[in-house]
């Protein structure tokens, strides 16, 4: 199942549903999910490192992550123009408590 298209899958945080996957990268050493946190007025897109994924249920089309909804909602907003920038990744890695290893090339885990 490596490299499966997860676009459209629902994202389940440890305390409930948080949104759906808008985009996913399966590139070697650069795996991440872009999650649309929903239609709420404060909804936004956030980037989750592949390392936050606990498991994927393809039958139910759900991705389970090891973060709470509030932490995901408060994450730095996804910036398509700078998501490859090392400074952005460092900030994101620091936010998720994955000291410098959140997503820089050579450190991110595979999604599935």
Automatic annotation (TrEMBL):
InterPro entries: Bac_photo_RC_H_C, PRC-brl_dom, PRC_barrel-like_sf. It comes from the Bacteria. Gene3D superfamilies: Photosynthetic Reaction Center, subunit H, domain 2. GO terms for cellular component: plasma membrane light-harvesting complex. Signal peptide: none annotated. GO terms for biological process: photosynthesis, light reaction. Residues 3-71 form the PRC-barrel domain. This is PRC-barrel domain-containing protein.
